[in-house]
Amino acid sequence: MQIDQKMLNRLLSMNDEQLGTIIQNIANESGIDSAQLGLNPNNIASIRQALGSATEADLAQLNVIYESYRQNKKNK
Q1: Beta strands of 1-76 (E only): which ranges?
Q2: pTM score, two decimals?
Q3: Fewer CB within 10 Å, N side or C side of the chain?
Q4: What is the pLDDT of residues 29-41, one digit of tens each?
Q5: How many Å apart are CA 34 and CA 25, to the nearest integer?
Q6: Alpha-carbon distance 74 to 44, whole Å?
Q7: How far apart, in whole angstroms, are the C-alpha atoms of residue 76 and residue 74?
Q8: CA 21 to each of CA 11, 15, 17, 75: distance values in angstroms, whole numbers, following the listed order
Q9: How far apart are CA 70 and CA 75, in angstroms?
Q10: Angle between helices 16-29 and 5-12 (to 10 degrees)
């Protein structure tokens, strides 16, 4: 999964419930226990704010980190 500006804009256009569901799905698919995320309306607002301020460099770094995490998960 690659997050680019187009995908980021789609995520930001979702309501809080939809965004929370997407975050939980990404966590689950990555092997992260989504229950440990403790998502609530305050978290979603903070996540939305952080995503909204992400630069192209931030997105590139996020993609590298995510891919590295997935590769490490496969090798275990």
Answers
A1: none
A2: 0.75
A3: C
A4: 877 887 888 888 8
A5: 8
A6: 29
A7: 6
A8: 11, 10, 6, 27
A9: 9
A10: 130
